[in-house]
């Protein structure tokens, strides 16, 4: 058992017989009243996301997670196929289990498959950053600098991120997977 105040993004706990993943956890102290934990939670089976407020001392049952290194191969419709890097065994994960993480999956990306009780596949853990290609963004403004307000750019997977004004179509960018934000241009030759 763990107190709600100790829950962090990515942790999985059991509540009412359902496996729940923490998407976001914020410690909130209103002007009046008690401190609360405001969290965004996803039901792993159904994919439903809810915003929930819990008392910091409320206890939940944390689930032990086993991780295996894997490579994303391809997707067909709402099914995403991964291959275990050691045994070459293939696993299929539904888009509901992946949630927004599917927007960071590009072919051959290395991830970690997460299992509860060594057999129940919960989803994937993404690397901290991924390199993606810009497929569409508005033309740059001459003389634009890094200090500009930015513009939206659609990446090869459909992910939309705010980028500086000087970014053009076809450029490869480093995207932070935890926050879904532009980090930098990818280094040429890597």
TrEMBL record:
<dbReference type="InterPro" id="IPR011768">
    <property type="entry name" value="Transl_elongation_fac_P"/>
</dbReference>
<dbReference type="InterPro" id="IPR015365">
    <property type="entry name" value="Elong-fact-P_C"/>
</dbReference>
<dbReference type="InterPro" id="IPR008991">
    <property type="entry name" value="Translation_prot_SH3-like_sf"/>
</dbReference>
<comment type="similarity">
    <text>Belongs to the elongation factor P family.</text>
</comment>
<dbReference type="GO" id="GO:0005829">
    <property type="term" value="C:cytosol"/>
</dbReference>
<dbReference type="InterPro" id="IPR020599">
    <property type="entry name" value="Transl_elong_fac_P/YeiP"/>
</dbReference>
<feature type="domain" description="Elongation factor P C-terminal">
    <location>
        <begin position="130"/>
        <end position="185"/>
    </location>
</feature>
<dbReference type="InterPro" id="IPR001059">
    <property type="entry name" value="Transl_elong_P/YeiP_cen"/>
</dbReference>
<protein>
    <recommendedName>
        <fullName>Elongation factor P</fullName>
    </recommendedName>
</protein>
<dbReference type="InterPro" id="IPR014722">
    <property type="entry name" value="Rib_uL2_dom2"/>
</dbReference>
<dbReference type="Pfam" id="PF01132">
    <property type="entry name" value="EFP"/>
</dbReference>
<keyword id="KW-0251">Elongation factor</keyword>
<keyword id="KW-0963">Cytoplasm</keyword>
<dbReference type="GO" id="GO:0003746">
    <property type="term" value="F:translation elongation factor activity"/>
</dbReference>
<dbReference type="Pfam" id="PF09285">
    <property type="entry name" value="Elong-fact-P_C"/>
</dbReference>
<comment type="pathway">
    <text>Protein biosynthesis; polypeptide chain elongation.</text>
</comment>
<dbReference type="InterPro" id="IPR013185">
    <property type="entry name" value="Transl_elong_KOW-like"/>
</dbReference>
<comment type="function">
    <text>Involved in peptide bond synthesis. Stimulates efficient translation and peptide-bond synthesis on native or reconstituted 70S ribosomes in vitro. Probably functions indirectly by altering the affinity of the ribosome for aminoacyl-tRNA, thus increasing their reactivity as acceptors for peptidyl transferase.</text>
</comment>
<dbReference type="GO" id="GO:0043043">
    <property type="term" value="P:peptide biosynthetic process"/>
</dbReference>
<dbReference type="Pfam" id="PF08207">
    <property type="entry name" value="EFP_N"/>
</dbReference>
<dbReference type="InterPro" id="IPR012340">
    <property type="entry name" value="NA-bd_OB-fold"/>
</dbReference>
<keyword id="KW-0648">Protein biosynthesis</keyword>
<feature type="domain" description="Translation elongation factor P/YeiP central">
    <location>
        <begin position="67"/>
        <end position="121"/>
    </location>
</feature>
<dbReference type="InterPro" id="IPR013852">
    <property type="entry name" value="Transl_elong_P/YeiP_CS"/>
</dbReference>
């Amino acid at each position: 058992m763990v107190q709600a105040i100790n829950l962090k993004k990515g942790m999985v706990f059991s509540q009412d017989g359902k496996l729940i993943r923490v998407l976001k956890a914020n410690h909130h102290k209103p002007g009046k009243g008690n401190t609360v934990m405001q969290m965004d939670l996803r039901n792993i089976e159904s994919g439903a996301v809810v915003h929930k407020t819990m008392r910091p001392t409320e206890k939940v049952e944390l689930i032990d997670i086993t991780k295996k290194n894997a490579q994303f191969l391809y997707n067909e419709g709402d099914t995403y196929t991964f291959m275990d890097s050691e045994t070459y065994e293939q696993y299929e994960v539904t888009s509901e289990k992946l949630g927004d993480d599917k927007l960071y999956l590009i072919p051959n990306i290395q991830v970690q498959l997460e299992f509860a009780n060594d057999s129940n596949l919960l989803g994937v853990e993404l690397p901290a950053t991924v390199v993606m290609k810009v497929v569409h963004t508005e033309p740059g403004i001459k003389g634009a600098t890094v200090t500009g307000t930015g513009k939206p750019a659609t990446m090869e997977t459909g992910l939309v991120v705010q980028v500086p004004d000087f970014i053009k179509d076809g450029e490869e960018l480093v995207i932070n997977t935890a926050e879904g934000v532009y980090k930098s241009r990818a280094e040429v030759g890597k």
